[in-house]
Write a structure and sequence with these properties.
Elements: E1 7-8, E2 16-23, E3 29-37, E4 45-49, E5 52-55
Antiparallel strand pairs: 1-2, 2-3, 3-4, 4-5
Bound molecules: zinc ion (ZN).
């Protein structure tokens, strides 16, 4: 494990900023698309989307997307 790319969080100075990768719509991996603080009480994050940088967006954990489903078509 290389530790070259881990940076201390500049907000809380407790957690580390770790790079997260994603996969594009074409299946190509997008490396280091987002950086997130490992301190859960801090939640500092930086994301890159379409060339724009988003700092400290609220983290989406899907908990707020639990709309009741209509019907039940499997
Ligand atoms: Zn932090």
């Amino acid at each position: 494990m290389e530790q070259c790319c881990i940076h201390k969080c500049q907000k809380c100075h407790i957690g580390d900023l770790v790079p997260l990768s994603d996969f594009g719509s074409q299946g190509a991996s997008i490396k280091y698309k987002a950086w997130v603080c490992t301190n859960p009480e801090c939640g500092y994050n930086i994301k890159i989307r379409n060339g724009d940088i988003y700092i400290n967006e609220p983290i989406m954990n899907g908990a707020n997307n639990s709309r009741p489903r209509q019907g039940g078509t499997f």
